[in-house]
Design a protein that fits this description.
Structural class: mainly alpha
Number of helices: 40
Length: 898
């Protein structure tokens, strides 16, 4: 396990996500030679990144199921009780779906278009609830903001990231990058694959264009997609359903039902005129009926007179606009002055949906008062209720509120935005206390800011759910604040959102945020804040495996920190630079950066920073095959983590020490460390890390000859990884089991498993995993007589290992290849391979490969020069094997010598 990275990841929020990309490039690091699993880091991420509702947080103690576990996704808005008829449209839609399913045909996309306020979304949601039983794998709703005033339409790539997370894809597996087109295409492919064999319903609401929604369409034939749009979106195989204004009779029925008056008490002619005046649009009809219901003393004639007066006030509008806007104006003017003011301020909100806490910040009132206002506005049909006690304005009403707000004082606009940003800063502080293990490093609220009421977040699950719900709103507030030159708020909000975005992604979203923050800090001249933003940018770039950009951002951060003599910030940036250099195999630079960071941390007396730098330095030493130095650094890191009571740091250091000791042939110590780490993960109820520890224990058991114990450990790990949906860890377990089968004599089954692992590694882009599988595959193919296939596997594996700089893995592959040549009656060539392996093994002090090389040289000399030759090499091999406790190899050589 990458103890330095993982230890830091769990002790410092900047390290939790993003390592899978590196692991896939450098899987060799975690001991390819002995087959130790490399995906340990992904375990932690799986528990931290599965946070987008409806996907629950992955940590078991949060009361959630494991990430990647089967789940039924349901995110449809509440069905409205005021839905009126639409029988013909519903019958057409339901019939189309039923016929397609009964015939086994692919379900066409159904595009529901119509004018604003006609009830497209209401119709789609109602149909979704009616059809939900036909789509048991989930029902999803996505608002694409195609025509939402003040909001940019949601980009396809952004919508895909949310959909993939909701469908259970770990964040670190969602494609990211700077090429928007390529990222969108990759995410779309993953989305289609995810739903390939599912029966799910997807509502894409408020689409701006077919281009916007096309990447979101599932590839399988079992999914139904309903699209709503104000435009007539033309495509090839879609079913277009236009939703018109209600027929007059239906509009009258809706009005009567919502007014709460007997129909004979209203006057049919008057009601006919009322619904005609608002264009028979369900939104307008609902608002008019609500006015009458809330004024028992009014008659329908009174309402008509007021509507005519409102239409006269709006005479400058076009007739179509005037028809529905008059109903808004009538409802608005009927509100009490304080509620009018609250409604206007809703128009200042940069986001889309809000809760009473945000309402309180916007309205500059208490949460209790805000809740009363929101409930009253809902009763008045001026806002819609969303799941989770949240509210949003219909697009038309949102535009109306924004218009009212624009007529007021521009200072009121700026003050409302400042208040809501200040609220989010306070709420983020509460949330970060749960998701940042070392405490939230969030800047204080702006000077002079009044206290705000924050939501009650009692657990990590609460915090993550709140953060995901508010993500889009907070980012919209950052954009609005930036547009209003509120640069200090931009910097603070970006810093406060950083811990969550590191964990939950998508990281390209985080890149945009931190770039904005860095530019905002430049405007304010705050070099420390600019350094913080650049450092965050570098961390996220590292998560994306964009290493040159990460190095550039982190170097700029170091410069910014030096300008203000911020030694803590400089140490953090150097520590991050060291990690990036490690990932790019620039080991000398990595060691130098970590050493400098460690010195700064020691001067500052910052113990956690010292532990992190030591762990990363130990990791670098291990990559350079400086095993003694690695043990020394990791042992010191372990002592500090124990001093701080950091159980994750302790467990990860123990695991990494186990890997190093295994490389050094100290199998008893390695097993003890892995068992201690496993026990801590058990205590923390971390199933994924438990699986990693099981794999590593299995490797030690195999190397010491306990094959069945190894098989049991790897099988248990495989079960965990499969249940948790952790593909990388699962590939490692499959590979380990292939090695066990090969040693047990079942080369055919070994080949099957190793090919499965190889395919998985290639799909994940793991060159290290690919090399490890190829090395073992070469051995297994040699056993069944596939000599050419074996040599090809060894050649490709060595090419990868040398490119990665993995000398221990290279020695193992050379030993394997040498044994193939020896059994193929090519002892001279075999001896050359064993000689190269021996030089490598001695150079890096890897005793197992040294013993294997000595044994191979002795056997080659015995074969070339006759019995009795090569005895010294064989006896030297026996000495090393005995020290390692590899009794089976000792027995084989002693039989030969006898």
């Amino acid at each position: 396990m990458l103890v330095g990275l993982v230890t830091n990841a769990v002790s410092d929020e900047s390290r939790w996500p993003g390592w899978l990309g590196w692991l896939q490039e450098h899987a060799w690091f975690s001991f390819v030679v002995l087959g130790v699993t490399m995906a340990g880091l992904t375990a932690l991420l799986a528990g931290l990144s599965e946070t987008r509702p409806p996907t629950p947080p992955g940590r078991p103690e949060d009361g959630a199921g494991p990430p990647g576990a089967a789940q039924v996704l349901r995110s449809l808005p509440r069905d409205t009780a005021a839905f009126t008829d639409r029988a013909a449209e519903l019958e057409r839609l339901v019939g189309s779906v039923r016929v397609s399913q009964e015939r086994g045909e692919g379900l066409p996309v159904h595009v529901i278009d119509g004018m604003p306020g006609v009830g497209k979304t209401t119709f789609a949601v109602h149909a979704g609830h009616l059809l939900s039983e036909r789509f048991p794998d989930g029902q999803l709703f996505v608002n694409l903001n195609g025509h939402t005033p003040g909001r940019t339409p949601v980009q396809a790539g952004e919508a895909l990231a949310s959909l993939l997370a909701a469908a259970g894809v770990p964040t670190q597996q969602i494609p990211v990058g700077d090429d928007v087109g390529a990222v969108t295409e990759a995410r779309a492919a993953m989305w289609r694959s995810r739903l390939a064999d599912k029966k799910a319903l997807l509502i894409l609401d408020n689409a701006a264009s077919y281009r916007q929604l096309e990447p979101l369409l599932p590839g399988g034939s079992g999914c139904l997609v309903l699209v709503t749009s104000r435009k007539r979106l033309v495509a090839n195989e879609e079913v277009v359903m236009s939703v018109e204004a209600l027929p007059p009779d239906h509009a009258v029925d809706l009005f009567v039902r919502l007014s709460g008056r007997p129909s004979d008490a209203l006057g049919r002619d008057v009601v006919d005129e009322l619904v005609r005046l608002c264009g028979c649009l369900p939104l307008g009809v609902s608002l008019l009926a609500a006015r009458l219901r809330h004024h028992p003393s009014w008659t329908a004639e009174d309402l008509r007179g007021r509507l005519f007066a409102a239409r006269d006030r709006l005479g400058e509008l076009r007739a179509g606009e005037r028809a529905v806007t008059a109903t808004f104006d009538l409802s608005y003017r009927d509100l009490a002055p304080e509620r009018q003011r609250f409604f206007r301020r809703l128009g200042f909100f940069p986001g889309t949906d809000l809760d009473p806490h945000v309402g309180a910040a916007l309205g500059d009132v208490s949460v209790v008062v805000a809740r009363l206002h929101l409930e009253a506005l809902y009763d008045d049909h001026l806002i819609d209720e969303q799941p989770g006690s949240r509210y949003r304005l219909h697009d038309l009403l949102r535009d109306y509120a924004r218009g009212l707000a624009a007529e007021g004082d521009s200072m009121d606009h700026a003050q409302a935005v400042q208040r809501v940003c200040t609220y989010y800063l306070a709420a983020l502080t509460v949330a970060n206390e749960h998701i940042v293990r070392s405490g939230a490093a969030v800047p204080p609220a702006p000077d002079g800011a009044s206290p705000v009421e924050t939501p009650v977040l009692e657990s990590r699950a609460d915090a993550l759910s709140w953060l995901e719900t508010e993500r889009a709103n907070i980012l919209a507030c950052v954009r609005r604040a930036n547009g209003l030159a509120m640069y200090d708020l931009v910097v603070r909000l970006a810093a406060a959102m950083a811990p969550f975005l590191r964990q939950a992604g998508p990281w390209d979203q985080a890149v945009a945020l931190h770039r904005t923050a860095a530019e905002a800090a430049r405007h304010t001249g705050d070099q420390r804040a600019r350094g913080d933003a650049l450092a965050e940018l570098g961390v996220v770039r590292r998560f994306m495996a964009a290493y040159p950009q990460a190095i550039e951002a982190l170097n700029d951060a170091v410069t910014a920190y030096e300008a203000v003599d911020d030694r803590r910030g400089k140490a953090e940036a150097l520590n991050q630079l060291g990690i990036v250099w490690y990932l790019t195999a620039d080991n000398e630079d990595a060691a130098r950066a970590q050493t400098e960071a460690l010195a700064l941390y020691r001067d500052l007396g910052y113990r956690l920073g010292q532990a992190n730098a030591l762990a990363d330095l130990g990791m670098t030493h291990r990559q350079m095959s400086r095993f003694d130095a690695a043990v020394e650094a990791q042992s010191e890191a372990l002592a500090i983590y124990r001093e701080l009571g950091d159980r994750y740091g302790e467990a990860n250091s123990l695991r990494d020490l186990g890997v190093v000791h295994c490389l050094m042939g100290a199998y008893d110590i390695a097993a003890r460390h892995h068992q201690e780490a496993f026990d801590i993960y058990l205590e923390l109820d971390d199933r994924v890390h438990q699986a990693y520890a099981l794999n590593e224990l299995g490797v030690v058991r195999r190397l010491t000859g306990d094959i069945e114990a190894a098989r049991t450990a790897h099988s248990q790990a495989l079960t965990h990884f499969t249940e948790l949906g952790e593909r990388f860890g699962r590939a490692n377990s499959v590979r380990h089991l292939g090695v066990v089968d090969r040693i047990s004599g079942d080369a055919t089954e070994a080949i099957r498993l190793l090919v499965e692992a190889l395919d998985a590694y290639r799909e994940l882009g793991s060159r290290g995993g690919e090399a490890a599988s190829l090395s073992e595959l070469g051995v297994a193919r040699g056993i069944v007589g596939e000599r050419d296939g074996a040599i090809e596997a060894f050649q490709r594996g060595l090419e990868i290992l040398r490119g990665l700089g993995d000398r221990c893995g290279e020695a193992e592959a050379l030993n394997h290849w040498g044994m193939l040549l020896l059994t193929s009656d090519e002892p001279t060539a075999a001896r050359r391979h064993f000689g190269q392996a021996l030089t490598l093994a001695r150079d890096i002090r890897c005793p197992l490969e040294e013993a294997r090389a000595l044994e191979g040289i002795g056997r080659c000399d015995w074969t070339i020069d006759g019995p009795g030759h090569g005895v010294d090499s064989l006896r030297a091999a026996v000495t090393v094997y005995r020290r390692l406790g590899v009794s089976s190899a000792v027995d084989d050589i002693e039989r030969l010598l006898v």
